[in-house]
Design brief:
This protein is an alpha/beta fold. It has one domain (18-148): Lumazine/riboflavin synthase (Rossmann fold), CATH 3.40.50.960. 47% of the residues lie in helices and 18% in strands. It has 5 helices and 4 strands; from the N terminus they run βαβαβαβαα. Strands 2-1-3-4 form a 4-stranded parallel β-sheet, sandwiched between helices. It is globular and about 55 Å long. The chain starts with 17 loop residues before the first strand and ends with a helix.
Length: 157
């Protein structure tokens, strides 16, 4: 039986410039996600001098910052970190939808990997679970995905 050629990214972040775009809104959740992302980056070889942290007011403002970073090729990969928690109005749907669409569009348009660490949860408890307790740390998972995709794109180029 023939072997199928498989191409995949590895998890080495040694020679990688990374920008984290983090929302200040729901900061008590976001800080845990940032810590998870930083821990992951360092664990996989990234140096602090190669990591940039950019703060934006909220999730709705994230796509513009991500677009500017991607267009300028400031980083090899971006990690988007935020938390949108459902309330009693449709505001959640508009903010989360625009945030996700805008960030994804920048990644596709500029060919830059973006780790999606923006939580969209129904409750504060769900957000807390995903920021480092029961459900792991989604900031760490976003960093892992970004590292792997940067390395995969490098192999594909």
């Amino acid at each position: 039986m023939e072997t199928i050629k498989t191409i995949e990214g590895d998890l080495i972040a040694r020679d990688m410039r990374v920008t984290i775009v983090a929302s200040r809104f729901n900061n008590f959740i976001v800080e845990s996600l940032i810590k998870g992302a930083l821990h992951c980056l360092r664990q996989h070889g990234a140096t602090d001098s190669a990591i940039e942290l950019i703060r934006v007011p909220g999730a709705y403002e994230m796509p513009l910052a991500v677009e500017k970073i991607a267009a300028a090729r400031r980083a090899d990969g971006i990690i988007a970190i935020g938390a949108v928690i459902r309330g009693a109005t449709p505001h959640f749907d508009y903010v989360s939808g625009e945030c996700m669409r805008g960030i994804a569009a920048s990644g596709r348009q500029h060919g830059i990997p973006i780790g999606m660490g923006v939580l969209t949860t129904d409750t504060i408890e769900q957000a807390i679970e995903r920021a480092g307790t029961k459900a792991g740390n989604k900031g760490e998972e976003a960093a892992l995905a970004m590292i792997e995709m940067v390395n995969l794109i490098r192999k594909l180029d």
